[in-house]
Design brief:
Strand order of the largest sheet: 3-2-5
Oligomer: single chain
Helix content: 40-55%
Number of strands: 11
Largest sheet: 3 strands, antiparallel
Radius of gyration: 22 Å
Order of helices and strands: EEEEHHEHEEHEEHEEHH
Shape: elongated
Strand content: 15-25%
Length: 204
């Protein structure tokens, strides 16, 4: 799973935060600072030389970002946390929880599934998904292809008939959609929440 840490753009004089891009995970791409200046209105109206940028690792201080307001020390290039009051604005709390659940969704997808058709357990990370797609294409292009060898988590390499493989692919798609559906449902609950306690109570 591709992960990208948050970028914090700040005023070089005051240290006030202009843009926090948040964390991202999944099928994501790192943007350049030039692209960010075009995408965010708070940056596009600024002279680039007056703006600093902090690049954080994915997951870095995620617990603090979910609770506290902050600014940047322009000289030391460190984050100064405002511990009073000890709660961040509700929208910031919501976004931090949404980012966390997005990562949990991808973990659940990649963890794999147990096929009701074969009784075997299959991984389903990005590489596995690509392999499933490739084998499905082979079955479409070669109607005479009757079976394939496939690695399972519980029994090693097994032989799957054409019909069995098609059913496993169908089950894989269901598994992925179930996790995505769960994420969207939880995300909707977070967006509808009116207090931090309600947001904190929503978990994967």
């Amino acid at each position: 799973m591709q992960t990208i840490g948050r970028k914090i753009y700040f005023d070089k004089l005051s240290g006030n935060v202009l843009v926090d891009t948040g964390e991202r995970a999944g099928f994501v791409r790192e943007t350049t600072q030039e692209e960010d200046f075009q995408s965010y209105s708070a940056l596009s109206e600024r002279v680039p030389a007056t703006v600093g940028c902090l690049q954080l690792e994915y997951g870095q201080d995620s617990d603090k970002f979910a609770q506290y307001q902050y600014r940047v020390d322009p000289e030391k290039l460190t984050i100064i946390w405002d511990l009073t009051p000890p709660t961040a604005p509700l929208e910031q709390v919501k976004q931090a929880k949404i980012d966390f659940l997005n990562g949990e969704c991808f973990k659940a997808i990649y963890a794999g599934f147990t096929s009701a058709t074969t009784g075997h357990t299959f991984r389903f990370n990005e590489e596995d998904q690509a392999n499933f797609n490739q084998q499905s294409t082979l079955f479409l292009l070669k109607p005479d292809l009757a079976e394939t060898q496939w690695k399972t988590e519980d029994a090693g390499i097994v032989t799957l008939s054409r019909a069995e493989f098609i059913e496993v692919v169908f089950e894989a798609g269901q598994h992925k959609q179930q996790q995505i559906g769960k994420y969207w449902g939880l995300k909707a609950q977070i967006e509808a929440a009116t207090t931090k306690d309600e947001v904190d109570a929503i978990n994967w």
